Amino acid sequence: MKFSIVKGRIAIYYLGLDFGTSGARACIIDGDKAIVWEQRVAYPDPAEQTTADWRAALHTLLSALPKDIAAQLHGLAIDGTSGTVMLCDAKLEPLNPALLYHDDRARQQAAQLKAIAPERHAVCTATSGLAKFLWLTQQSDINHAAYFLHQADWLTALLGGKPGISDYHNAMKTGYDVEQLCWPHWVMALPHTHLLPQVFAPGEIIGHIQPDIAAHFGIHPQCAIHAGTTDSIAAFIAADVNQLGIGVTSLGTTLVLKQLSAIRIDAPEYGVYSHRYGDLWLVGGASNAGAAVLRHYFNDKQLAALSAQIDPLQDSPLDYYPLTKIGERFPVNDVRLAPRLEPRPANDVEFLHGLLQGLARIEAAGYAKLAELGAPTLKRVVTNGGGAQNTVWKKMRERLLGIPVSTAVVSISQARKSLENCLPLVHSEAAYGSALLCLNG
After folding, report:
1. Which of 89, 128, 237, 301 could link 123 by a cystine bridge, Cβ 3.0 to 4.6 Å?
2. What confidence tens digit (pLDDT) does each residue in 251-289 have?
């Protein structure tokens, strides 16, 4: 592979693409893990996002790549939302609307899986990939189906031209055995399992970019395509946490908690599951609550102005559970749990105080549940996602957790500021984590 020489060394770049709950992001890093370019695209309607939205966002991000950097891309990897799945034909055209990460229509199928899956398995929930696989194959005309794919699988296949491939982070909730590294017999005994993907390790090279795609976007023709991961694990990778006792909280559209553990912990009744992560396990859960409920009531300017008037050291008398709709996954796994957002005070400062405190209490309850199930005691928490920039919320969370909370770097300018002040450089964006997958894979 030929690359240009920059300042006496080869210029090699890696592209991470993150398809999250609200939009898509791109991040390019060099061989020293430094960010050299970033871009993002919002979905037209995040609540009703479609495969067409993802394809359009992918093309928009690739079209925006700086030409000199695109020509030197050494590899790329894509992360997507966990449990977002679809059926496709042989040409990768979706046969039905994708079922999104929080879609819980497969309740009956989840109940069926409880009868055959190992006890406390992650597939035994209505939002799991395997429950959705059963729903799709039972509801759809599968005569033209060729592949069952996760969001990241489909987008990766569009670029690499090798459909039917996944990674064991995305495939875990579809029943893949991440200890034995195979599809277990109880999964393969189900109907239509020939549609399930071949599974690679996250970051493993699975091929190279298609020549026509490379030519169209000016990407190096030998750019490697790496197996991807989920958006929340990519965010964890970006935080560069490699020791026990440190939690990573992603404050995005939804609230995601993860921490490393020496033992595997799976408790689907609480929405808790573990991913294989080197020689350790990455244990955590994802709430349906998150910043989405804040943006339902306030814009960024309002959030900043109102937050500045809140005393984070004082409790709010409001007892909120701030969901955007009925249904919760973690730390309470209850598809019937209703939002609790009443009474609403006339004063917006008091209302926001209650919302932020409600989310902070969910985070604290989540880490407490992980500890109860055997996860290591937390010493500190690293925060990423858009909500991490709210300093008042940070102080409130720190008070309720009882441990230090730090904020990850989210942009090139912030990274430079951190380096200038000799601060530890911890990144926030999942796209950065996906780029690291290429470098470390």
Report:
1. 128
2. 888 899 999 999 999 998 898 989 999 889 999 999 999
Distance (Å, rounded) from C-alpha 161 to C-alpha 211? 10
Q: Residue 223: name the closest of 385, 413, 69, 377 by CA.
A: 69
Mean pLDDT of the chain: 91
Neighbours of 42 (CB within 10 A): 12
Determine the straight-line distance between the first and last CA of the chain, rounded to whole angstroms.
17
Residues 342 and 322: their CA atoms lie apart, in Å, by 10
- Give, to the nearest 10 degrees, the angle between helix 348-372 and helix 300-307: 90
Are the beta carbons of 266 and 114 closer than 8 angstroms?
Answer: no
Rounded distance between C-alpha atoms, residue 289 and residue 64, angstroms: 33
Contact in structure between 287 and 331 (CB atoms under 8 Å): yes
Local confidence band at 193 (pLDDT 50, 70, 90 cut-offs): very high
Q: Which of 234, 235, 251 is nearest to 385 (CA)?
A: 251
